[in-house]
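Quick one - first record:
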Amino acid sequence: MLNHLGEESMDHPLYSEWVTRMGEYHSHNTAAYVQKKMGPKWGKLYINKFYAALSAEDMLKAAGVKVLYEHTLFDTITENGKISALILHNRSGLTAVSGEVYIDASGDGVLAAQAGCRIEVGNDEGLCQPMTWCFKVAPVDIPDEDFWRGEWRKEIQQAYTEAKAAGILSCPRENVLMFQSTSPSTVHFNTTRVVLHDPLDAASYQEAGEIAREQIREFLFWLRDKVRGFKHAEIVSMGQQLGVRMPPSGVRPATLYNLHCSMCLSSLGSVLKVNSLPL
């Protein structure tokens, strides 16, 4: 999705460089396909997640960043309102790391919460936005027409509405959210929806994942049986985990001017807003 404030891109320059580096991994045929189907403006925003990971690592290495893979935040040590060390869990057990600046990019505000910052969850009633689990299917016989406004999409939406009314599909989402992919004959779906579950409660989050996967199962068999173009479709990719949406109705540290936390805001200041603005 585009992200602008007026005419100024909020993604510049870091994200723009990232997207450019992703494109360098594409074959000539894939680059030509994306350009033809999606155009110069939108085509560059269609991401291959594997190339996204590789190019992100390229950028980190170029910047001299040391990456600790397979490390999970276990605990946060604070002294006098400031973080002194993080306790991480890896295959060898527990280890401690420290630094001058600590950036909470966990998505759930885990570091900020452990450090003693006030955390806001959901809206005024404590309810978060729906959680979703994306997936891709292929091969799909995609008609040569406008992907967004063509008759095929209208057919799919009508069939989806009827399937929900008949109890074939349990997803509460009102419409089919699908996207083209960087791979021909592949369609990306973000059409699962799980509501009224707590992303910070382990049992609730696990149940939400089970609900989302059941919706994927229903959707796959329905697509094959009832929707033109999907007769031979297989799931070729799924999200790594159930997605939890961010603010305004997600999980985040309180905004800086509302923080009830005295820890090193001078160094942490530009950090906690990671969950409120693109980095």
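second record:
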Amino acid sequence: MTTGDNIRYTINTPRKTAMYSACQYVTAKRAKAEREAALVKAKDLASHPCNYTRATSYGAAKYVKKVDFDKETGEILTASSVLKIDEAMIREEEALDVYYVLLTSEMEESH
């Protein structure tokens, strides 16, 4: 958090996590469809990084290993190695397709 005087404060707030499964088929199907669209873009990003910036690669860059962006321009910096799709990230997300996770600072239950 930053105040009007440009002083940064860190506030630690207790939080409660709730994870539940809901309508498994619909949730998993929607998550898979959204991920597939991002993966098509990620594969193109890995093959043609010069066509993308931080803004245009949104949603796809998390699936590409070793992609770095220029902090000022948002352009992709020349990769030190060949860009590859992060298969472990994809499998990890697939395992969580049927779950919703909620984080809240409300510690008391309300009825």
